[in-house]
Amino acid sequence: MPEGPSLIIVREEAAKFVGRTVREVGGNSSIDIQRMRRRKVVALRTWGKHLLIEFSNFTLRVHFMLYGSYRIDERRPPPSRLRLGLVFDNGEFNFYACSLRFIDEPLDEVYDWRVDVMSDAWDPALARRKLKKLPDAWACDALLDQSIFSGVGNYIKNEVLYRIGVHPCSRVGALPARKLTELITQARQYAFDSLAWKQAHVLRKHWLVHNKGQCAKGHGKLVRAHLGKTHRRSFYCPICQPKFE
Predict the structure, then answer these.
(1) Distance between CA atoms of 163 and 96, rounded to whole angstroms?
(2) Suppose 195 and one of 5, 221, 223, 226 were both cysteines; which one would form an S-S bond, judging by CB atoms 3.0 to 4.6 Å apart?
(3) Which of 56, 86, 110 is the last residue of a domain?
(4) Is 94 left (phi over 0), alpha (psi -120 to 50) or beta?
């Protein structure tokens, strides 16, 4: 599933379509995609894991879900089925296996930009207030809560918890104030580190725990388990990451 840093890269790669008019629309989506034909793209924005293609009085929201993908100026070969294809004078923007929805309200009424870890409007104080209201939540669930850390996904969750030395099943309310600060700070910091590594095509080289078998600090075998409300894969070191209960 593409996370916040990946969506920033999509937005940057597709920037050439801003200000351009959609000439042709195709795909097997069940929504009225022809609504975008002959309409000009006003802006491309992101919120967490959502790509937002803005037109003058409505927006297309693209959510890549678990297996979604995109192509610019090319198409995936069969049997891949095109969910949406937007053709411009200067290229085409194609989407596969994703969720599409139109938003008719102003985006500022729909999205709280303060919870997007990649946004200039990110508000760590708001994140702390929200976490304080979830004292019994596990740290692994809190980091994946898009209403608190929009854009954080599973590998970021695993790496952040390893960085700060917190067991994924730690209760948020049991975390010392310093650890809570580190969790909030590193959620954003790792997202931006991840963006830089993805742009340099070296992201996986920097993983310390995600999809790894041994502790990077020499403490032996990592634990791999499906934890939390979403049962997402967690990788952690039982020595480096004590549980706060």
Answers:
(1) 34
(2) 5
(3) 110
(4) beta
Say what the pLDDT of residue 188 is: 97
Q: Write the pLDDT tens digit of every residue in 103-146.
A: 999 999 999 999 999 999 999 999 999 999 999 999 999 999 99
Instruction: Give the pLDDT confidence of 212-223 residue by residue, as tens digits.
Output: 999 999 999 999
Same domain, 120 and 101: no
Q: How many domains does the chain have?
A: 2
86 close to 36: Cβ distance less than 8 angstroms: yes
Domain limits for position 222: 114-236
Please, what is the Cα angle at 3 between 232 and 189, to 5 degrees?
A: 100
Joined tokens for residue 97:
């296996």
Degrees to nearest 5, angle at CA 63 with 191 and 136: 60
| pLDDT (tens digit per residue) in 221-239 | 999 999 999 899 999 999 9
Residue-level pLDDT at 185: 98
Give the integer Cα–Cα distance in Å for 103 and 206. 37
